[in-house]
Amino acid sequence: MEAGFKLATGMLRELETPFWMAVTLLEHAEWLVKEGRGEDAKPLLDEAREVFERLEATPWIQRTNEVPVDRAAIDR
User: Fold this and answer.
1) Helix axis angle, 38-55 relative to 18-34, nearest 10°?
2) d(CA 27, CA 41)
3) How many CB atoms lie within 10 A of CB 70?
4) How far apart are CA 21 and CA 55, in angstroms?
5) How many Cβ atoms are within 10 Å of 41's Cβ, its own excluded?
């Protein structure tokens, strides 16, 4: 599953489709959190949030902020 997320993100990055790339990063991060890998999810969430903020995609920013990662343990 993870390989598919990485492949899709790379393809969308290459195609210069930032919105769909950010959606894929967010969904990958959500999956990582479900797998107990919150620390691995943090950089993906940060990149997705940055893209959504640039695009002013408010509902997607909100969804990104709702991913249950332990930010206190991750933000160093």
Assistant:
1) 150
2) 10
3) 11
4) 12
5) 24
Cα(38)–Cα(32) distance, rounded to whole angstroms?
6
Separation CA 30–CA 63 (nearest Å): 10
28 close to 9: Cβ distance less than 8 angstroms: yes
Query: DSSP label at 35?
Result: T
pLDDT in tens, 1-58: 999 999 999 999 999 999 999 999 999 999 999 999 999 999 999 999 999 999 999 9
